[in-house]
Design brief:
With 279 residues, the protein is an alpha/beta fold. It contains eleven helices and eight strands.
Amino acid sequence: MKTETELKELVKEKYGQIADQSHAQNAASCCGSGCGSDEVYNLMADDYSKLEGYTAEADLGLGCGLPTEFAKIKKGDTVIDLGSGAGNDCFIARAFTGETGKVIGIDFTERMIEKARVNAEKLQYHNVEFRLGDIEHMPVSADMADVVVSNCVLNLVPNKLNVLKEVYRVLKPGGHFSISDIVLEGGLPVKIKEAAEMYAGCISGAIQKEVYLELINTTGFTNIIVQKEKSIFLPDDILLNYFSKNEVDLFRNSSSGIYSVTVYAEKPLATEPCCGSGC
């Protein structure tokens, strides 16, 4: 069993390589992990191309939802994108915030940050910036964001509770998040859980849906809503890298499922002490 530090280094290495792959290469694999199918499958990513702000050069096909579409971003908002990659979600968020807002992308892969900054400079977006950092320790002050978004990233982080606590810290009271992620229902076979490339491909780092939602609740968020949910289908030619044909059939007939969910939640407004007494 790898430690949290080892898993993070694995993800950092994989996504440094992915930064230089094409959208087509990434869309035909498990979040760009390299465990690709012989067929051209878009395993998880939704189609961004119709959204205002979409930038083809920044779309690496690594997402599993459209959180920015559901995030209720308003003009002038400050938005933080966790695991911002080449910048696509940030650029779409900017289309909602306008020039009076601010968008901050955070990623711990240097190559992704470099690529995102080049894209922002080409687009001449002066209110979009990218910061190198770990989303468990965000390089952002407390209570400064109106909205946090993230697309298929928390499943890559071993300690999801730490990330959620950081999301809570950086959001203003009354702020909210919209996060797309991978979750499970039922047990995931051990062979997939143990496969390193599937971890970097967003699947084996996923947790049970009910546990995921409870972590959000435990952190203190309210008004938790699953905005969208879809089943993720893994093609046989990927599963056969890990299972025999008989094991694949057993997996297909089991009650286990892999899902993409987009979850919304709010940080409560600060409450005043009763009668000013601090009680």
